[in-house]
Structure formats: structure tokens, C-alpha cells
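Catalogue entry: protein

Sequence with per-residue C-alpha cells
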Amino acid sequence: QVQLVESGGGLVQAGDSLRLSCAVSGQKFRDYAMGWFRQAPGKEREFVAAVSRGGGITSNADSDRGRLTLSRDNIKNMMYLQMNNLKPEDTGAYYCAAQYRPQEVVVTAAHEYDFWGQGTQVTVSS
């Protein structure tokens, strides 16, 4: 089993920045591809960003590209999502997810992830 705990959410104004963190325990972190997803009220969970097990490959949703930076620290068993120039449409619960992958690949589909955190809320006011 893999346990994931998100942190770093909060209430901010449009244009502000936040850094979300995901702490991972339970298995070898470096064996897992990781991702971030967002779920706004009344909407389905949507892909935000993903990183391969070694950190060599990242992928961002087209709408967020340029404002979001995903990184991971395989020594500290942590993943981070730096979000800049936040917009009201970024509001939602942010979830980190982990999926075992022996290859250096990214996983962008929510249904492919087996392990999820409880989420951290981000609210951006205009």
C-alpha cells in the first residue's frame, strides 16, 4: 500500500502563487509515477500534471501549461506542484495520486491510478 498526504492549499487572490506538497510513504517512492488532479464543485476530477518515476518526464494539462511546475524529490519521498498566477478557475480540491510503473512514463488518466490522497483545497478569489 501507498499512503499519500497533500498539503499547501489555502485561500488566495487571483495572481498569487501556491506550492502544493504530497508526502508519500509505504512503498518505494521511486517506483511510482505520480500525478496531480483537480476537482471543482459539481465537476469531474481532471488532470493537472504528472511526472515519471525518475522525474525525467513531466506533463501538464494544456490549459495550465506555463503556470504550473511539477517536481519530485525521490530522496525525501515528496512531490510538489508550484502554481503561479492563480486564477479563479483553478479553484478546487487538489489530489495527488501514485501508480506503480517500472518504466519511465507519465500517467495522465485518473482511472489508471490505484492510490490517492485525501486532497487539499485551493480557493482563488477574484
